[in-house]
């Protein structure tokens, strides 16, 4: 292998696929591999957390029903430990409750099976693009401050009263979008269009879940004055005051 080949391999983005269906895992691995991703497979849920820290992937694709431990528990522990690695649920469980739970636990996407490999690839690339923004150098002015809240888009960091706040990629994206439009109401459709190029279908709760987690992590739920306001039947408004 020459130097150019080593550079190309090292530049590949690494995906950990936690999936116990051998046939499906092989199919996904082959397709993603042909499209430039380095895929590693873990078939047991009780080994997934340790494997994630050992491998340090750019993204985790996670089934829910797994031997040893289910995907929700895995996601919960990773987020509780402070891991910000993007997580995409890929599961046959497509009930609204499961979707909302997965997003509330900190997942970036919840994708129902069956799915065409090329569609899965498109979702993965979209999540990786959003996560990859943290590697891009930004201008000196690429930051915002509201009272005790500081948001640095170049470094992808958030602080409240000088203390860092750990946000997932999708949570940071929503916060940055709202903060850039402080004082303006953004509809759910506005937010989905900006972040995922999708139209709001009237039932997608992913935005609501991310807003709730943001409020909790930023201390908004404990505040007497709403800082990220719900405008009923319209959308959300980031207040530039009371931070």
From TrEMBL:
GO biological process entries: regulation of DNA-templated transcription
One Pfam family this sequence matches: Response_reg
Annotated CDD domains: trans_reg_C
SUPFAM superfamilies: C-terminal effector domain of the bipartite response regulators, CheY-like
Keywords (A to Z) from UniProt: Cytoplasm, DNA-binding, Phosphoprotein, Transcription, Transcription regulation, Two-component regulatory system
Any GO CC annotation of this UniProt entry: protein-DNA complex
Listed name of the protein: Transcriptional regulatory protein RstA
């Amino acid at each position: 292998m020459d130097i150019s080949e080593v550079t190309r391999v090292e530049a590949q983005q690494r995906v950990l696929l936690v999936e116990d269906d051998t046939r499906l895992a092989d199919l996904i691995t082959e397709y993603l591999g042909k499209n430039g991703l380095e895929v590693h497979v873990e078939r047991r849920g009780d080994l997934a957390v340790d494997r994630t820290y050992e491998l340090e992937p750019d993204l985790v694709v996670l089934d829910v029903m797994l031997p040893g431990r289910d995907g929700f528990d895995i996601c919960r522990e990773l987020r509780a430990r402070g891991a910000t690695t993007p997580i995409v649920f890929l599961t046959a469980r497509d009930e609204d409750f499961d979707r909302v739970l997965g997003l509330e636990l900190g997942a970036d996407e919840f994708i129902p099976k069956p799915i065409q490999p090329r569609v899965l690839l498109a979702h993965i690339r979209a999540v990786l693009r959003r996560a990859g923004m943290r590697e891009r150098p930004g201008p000196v002015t690429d930051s915002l401050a509201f009272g005790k809240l500081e948001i640095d888009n170049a470094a992808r960091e958030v602080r409240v009263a000088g203390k860092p706040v750990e946000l997932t990629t999708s949570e940071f994206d929503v916060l940055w979008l709202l903060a850039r439009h402080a004082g303006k109401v953004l509809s759910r459709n506005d937010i989905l269009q900006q972040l995922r190029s999708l139209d709001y279908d009237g039932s997608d709760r992913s935005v609501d879940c991310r807003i709730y987690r943001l409020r909790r992590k930023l201390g908004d739920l404990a505040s007497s004055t709403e800082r990220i306001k719900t405008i009923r039947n319209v959308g959300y408004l980031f207040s530039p005051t009371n931070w």
